[in-house]
Amino acid sequence: MSKRLMTGLYWFLAFEFALGAVTKYWPGDTMFSSAYSAKFVDWGYPSWMRFVVGALEGVAAVLLVIPDRRTRFLGATALMFVLTGAVTTHMVNHHPAVESWAAPSHLLIMGILALANWPADWRDLLRAPTASAASAVGGYRLR
Q1: What is the SS3 assignment for the chain?
Q2: Bigger pLDDT: 128 or 35?
Q3: Rounded distance between C-alpha atoms, residue 50 and residue 36, angstroms
Q4: How far apart are CA 57 and CA 114, in angstroms?
Q5: Per-residue model confidence as pLDDT tens digits over 11-59
């Protein structure tokens, strides 16, 4: 797949989740649905949980657009946790598939992106970038 197309996909997904993060903080109804403060309570969570979910979505959205495999892996993995909770919530609350198709679809997409950015060694996630990696620009090594 072309690098531009993949970059566009990351930006589109980041935009979706950033918009989702903003709606979690919005105090009332949004143009998309009723207030998340009420939705979270209806789903059996405390109202403040929407802020935690919104923060995770916002941070993960930023991580997706940073052109580094480690950050994209961490962003996709964080969203997999959030989306697993969303899918579980929809299942427990017996929401019809027509209302809840987005969460499992995005969970699948994030799983694919996490696998595509999987580090060669899990310890790579914890290591500081090396001097040669720090000289990389946009995924290309400077010579």
Answers
A1: CCHHHHHHHHHHHHHHHHHHHHHHHCCCCCCCCCCHHHHHHHCCCCCCHHHHHHHHHHHHHHHHHCCCHHHHHHHHHHHHHHHHHHHHHHHHCCCCHHHHCHHHHHHHHHHHHHHHCCCCCHHHHCCCCCHHHHCEECCEECC
A2: 35
A3: 7
A4: 15
A5: 999 999 999 999 999 887 777 778 888 889 999 999 999 999 999 999 9
pLDDT digits (tens, 9 = 90+) for 68-81: 999 999 999 999 99
The amino acid at 129: P
The whole-model pTM stands at 0.78
